[in-house]
Amino acid sequence: QQQVKQSPQSLIVQKGGISIINCAYENTAFDYFPWYQQFPGKGPALLIAIRPDVSEKKEGRFTISFNKSAKQFSLHIMDSQPGDSATYFCAARVSDKLIFGTGTRLQVFP
Amino acid sequence: DSGVTQTPKHLITATGQRVTLRCSPRSGDLSVYWYQQSLDQGLQFLIQYYNGEERAKGNILERFSAQQFPDLHSELNLSSLELGDSALYFCASSARGVQSAEAFFGQGTRLTVV
């Protein structure tokens, strides 16, 4: 019930393409959905986040789409760049606890 | 640089041993969180301290313990180590008293148990 399922496990995208990472949840008590970006050898860093009363949030090339009825949310990276190559984690908050997905390793090739 | 400092960066030890991981939070942050990241696994929340007091517990084994000192730095103690304890251990800090999405992560300690 408190799991967040993330897919795909890995993703290879050509430079300039769109990267899409999906997450799904069951617990309707989740009230905040952040995405984290982690580069090798570094800790995760907050990238973008959304609340369930909003269907979309965009920050630069990064967009979160949120479908409350389907209990799914996704991260879209437009015009993907080699510098975006990293591991991305979705997360969901309930009772002030963050539950993380298992991560997606994104590789963007020039 | 997140402002959260973890030491050591790497640690190699034998099964059955005990190790201590250290975390210095960002200046002014009262909350410290510990997470475990195993290979191909997400981030597993272990424990949170707020201003010296234990605030929340996650999937932390009984062999593991933590504390937060008056100067707000925290230590995670791992004892009777097993091969399966090999992982990246992250510390995060935030100004808030709850596990927050705005928490800032350190660079982690990579623990290898041989």
Give an overview of the whole structure.
The complex is a heterodimer of chains A (110) and B (114). Chain A has strands at residues 4-7, 10-14, 19-25, 33-38, 45-50, 56-59, 62-67, 72-77, 86-94, 97-100, 104-109. Chain A has 110 residues and is mainly β. In chain A, the strands form 2 sheets. In chain A, strands 2, 4, 5, 9, 10 and 11 form a 6-stranded mixed beta sheet that branches. Chain A has a 5-stranded antiparallel beta sheet with strand order 1-3-8-7-6, with no helix packed on it. Chain B is mainly β and 114 residues long. Helix content of chain B is 0%, strand content 51%. Chain B has no helices and 11 strands. In chain B, the strands form 2 sheets. In chain B, strands 2, 4, 5, 6, 9, 10 and 11 form a 7-stranded mixed beta sheet that branches. In chain B, strands 1-3-8-7 form a 4-stranded antiparallel beta sheet, with no helix packed on it. Chain B is globular, with a radius of gyration of 13 Å.
Present the secondary structure layout.
The complex is a heterodimer of chains A (110) and B (114).
Chain A: E1 4-7, E2 10-14, E3 19-25, E4 33-38, E5 45-50, E6 56-59, E7 62-67, E8 72-77, E9 86-94, E10 97-100, E11 104-109
Parallel strand pairs in A: 2-11
Antiparallel strand pairs in A: 1-3, 3-8, 4-5, 4-9, 6-7, 7-8, 9-10, 9-11
Chain B: E1 5-7, E2 10-13, E3 19-24, E4 31-37, E5 43-50, E6 53-57, E7 64-68, E8 74-78, E9 87-94, E10 104-105, E11 109-113
Parallel strand pairs in B: 2-11
Antiparallel strand pairs in B: 1-3, 3-8, 4-5, 4-9, 5-6, 7-8, 9-10, 9-11
Task: Give structural attributes.
heterodimer; A: 110 residues; mainly beta; six-stranded mixed sheet; five-stranded antiparallel sheet; 11 strands; 57% strand; globular; B: 114 residues; seven-stranded mixed sheet; four-stranded antiparallel sheet
What's the shape of chain B?
globular
- Which structural class fits the helix and strand makeup of chain B? mainly beta
Structural class of chain A: mainly beta
- Helix content bin of chain A: under 10%
Distance between the termini of chain B: 31 Å
Task: Provide the gyration radius of chain A in Å.
Answer: 13 Å
The chain-level mean pLDDT of chain B equals 93
According to DSSP, the number of beta strands of chain A is: 11
The arrangement of helices and strands of chain B along the chain is: EEEEEEEEEEE
How confident is the prediction overall: mean pLDDT of chain A?
93
Low-confidence stretches of chain B: none
Our measurement of the CA-to-CA distance between the termini of chain A, rounded to an integer number of angstroms, reads: 40 Å
**Main beta-sheet strand count, sense and barrel state of chain A:** 6 strands, mixed
How much strand of chain A?
over 45%
